[in-house]
Write a structure and sequence with these properties.
By secondary structure, this protein is an alpha+beta fold. Helices cover 36% and strands 19% of the residues. The protein contains twelve helices and eleven strands. It is globular and about 50 Å long. The protein starts with 5 loop residues before the first helix and ends with a helix.
């Protein structure tokens, strides 16, 4: 049997169905002898297994996880984690832009200018975020390269028990000159250098995280209003994203607007979506380089010697 990578051969729904079928089999599934090798390009382990091996089930689950965590915007996990954002963005599109939608997850604008017939015929970026927190803007280089006016629509929500309720909405026309000024002394070359450091696959995630943190906390990045958010993990994620702090949104883009939450918030005169079920989420944050270093130092500390019992002392003395 040839080596296969199930997460590439089957779609998520195929994998789910196959896993469900295996679980319904009454006879015991025995783990048969398997072989494995690491793919030279992807670095993933590929397996050669008997069809009725229990390990096939493990691979199905692993394949499902691969699809769930994919960055193509179709993963169920992403949809659940960003449910509040999707609800707000879909509402904005439906209410004001006739359901207008970008061609893909990585498109430059969420709503192209040609679909904005009511508010200046400029591209639109709808965003949703927790009240009082920065608004995530995605790829830093793409934001730096913005060279046309656009409409930034932000929906702020607050957690109320098991639900989220929108409490504030902003519709801000942003000119490219004002947007560029938020970068301070940062140049495109600076961002490209930091991006290259983050995507250097010759170094471990810990080494890259340490180098990226040192750069973002030094000049010229400290002159920017934007916050740079390097995304680095052990699963292969290497991206440079950015966000705009809550206070900066009102000071730089909406001066004079009261930032307090509202009981009956509206956008363009229409009430925001009703509260929806969405329990608080708890995402495990990656350890920072200094934390990992401290853990290593702690593990190297000499263990205390065990005290001898009276009997052992007596034996030694005799």
């Amino acid at each position: 049997m040839p080596f296969i990578n199930l997460s590439k051969v089957f779609s998520y729904h195929n994998l789910k169905s196959l896993a469900a079928s295996l679980l319904k089999i009454k006879e015991p599934l025995f783990l048969k002898k398997s072989e494995k090798r690491r793919d030279a390009l992807s670095g993933k382990l590929l397996y050669n297994l008997a069809p009725n091996s229990l390990a096939v089930l493990f691979l199905l689950v692993a394949g499902m996880n691969t699809h769930l965590c994919s960055e193509n915007g179709q993963g169920l996990l992403r949809q659940e984690v960003q449910k509040h954002g999707l609800i707000f963005e879909d509402w904005v599109r439906t209410e004001f832009f006739e359901g207008g939608k970008a061609e893909g997850y990585t498109a430059k604008w969420d709503i192209p200018a040609e679909q904005n017939l009511l508010f200046g015929k400029i591209p639109v970026n709808p965003k949703a975020t927790k009240y009082g927190t920065p608004v995530g803007l995605g790829d830093a280089l793409r934001q730096f390269e913005v060279n046309e006016p656009f409409l930034l629509i932000i929906g702020y929500w607050q957690q109320q028990a098991e639900s989220k309720r929108f409490v504030k909405a902003l519709a801000l026309r942003v000119d490219p000159e004002n947007w560029r000024s938020l970068w301070g002394a940062v140049t495109k070359a600076d961002l490209e250098l930091l991006d290259a450091v983050i995507k250097d696959r010759s170094k471990t995630p810990l080494e890259v995280r340490r180098a990226a943190m040192a750069m973002k906390n030094a000049h010229p990045f400290t002159t920017a209003v934007f916050t740079l958010n390097p995304k680095i993990d052990d699963l292969g994620q290497r991206r440079l994203q950015c966000s705009l702090p809550f206070q900066a949104v009102f000071e730089k883009l909406a001066p004079g607007v009261d930032p307090k939450p509202e009981d009956e918030p509206t956008l363009f005169g229409r009430a925001l979506p009703e509260p929806f079920y969405s329990p608080p989420r708890y995402l495990k944050k990656p350890l920072q380089p200094e934390t990992l270093d401290e853990n290593k130092r702690s593990s190297r500390k000499k263990k205390p010697e065990r005290k001898q019992t009276d009997g052992s002392q007596n034996r030694t003395a005799s």
